[in-house]
Amino acid sequence: MTARGWSEGPEPPVVNVPNAVTLVRTAAAVALAVPAIVAASAPLLVAAYLCYWIGDVLDGMLARALRQETRTGAVLDILADRACCCLCACALLVLRNDMAVPLAIFLFQFMVLDCLLSLSFLRWPLLSPNYFGLVHRGVYRWNWSPPAKAVNTGGLVVLILVTGSPLYPAALGIAVTIVKVASLVAVGRLAPLATRR
Questions:
Q1: CA neighbor of 121 nearest in space, from 3, 4, 6
Q2: Which of 25, 46, 103, 180 could cysteine-pair with 113, CB 3.0–4.6 Å?
Q3: Contact 17, 68 (CB under 8 A)
């Protein structure tokens, strides 16, 4: 029997509860973020972030609880996160245009580096990045452990809301970017699957 986290043959159907939650939470976050951008509305932005974050936690929990984790669902989740995050960040920029530099750093890190890193699980028959610890514990710990996920998607937003200076959010954005670059280098050096299982 294959250990939990490894893909076990053909993909099950794509239509399942977790993927439906991913689509609904993405549509809801986008539907709230776009008017938040147009109207510069803080309440709509908060609602968009809540749909994004709560839905992101919920779809993953349901996938594991219902044993409906799929590689297709993991890719859908990664792409949906980028759609939600990009629009929410744009709405945040409308409200806090003094935070353009840290938001630009964050968007480059999340949309490019983190996306590439998150999709790197496809090099192995892993179900999702949540199981990357099976091939490299350090990369998993720094990128997909619960604290790392919280810092990566929410840390900058919290700093922007609690500080008046762009310095601290920019410093966090640079620190996370360094972690992503180091992680990509580490992933690029990983041994082929045949020597790891």
A1: 6
A2: 180
A3: yes
Determine the Cα–Cα distance for residues 177 and 152; give it in Å rounded to an integer: 10
Residues 31/87, Cβ–Cβ less than 8 Å: no
Strand partners, 126: 6
Q: DSSP H helical segments within 145-166, as ranges?
A: 146-150, 156-162
Burial 137-170 (b: 16+ CB within 10 A, else e): eebbebbbeeebbebbbebbbebbeeeeebeebb
Hey, how many other C-beta atoms are within 10 angstroms of the C-beta on 34?
A: 15
**Residue-wise pLDDT tens digits, 79-109:** 999 999 999 999 999 999 999 999 999 999 9
* pLDDT on residue 3: 63
SS3 (DSSP) at 6:
strand
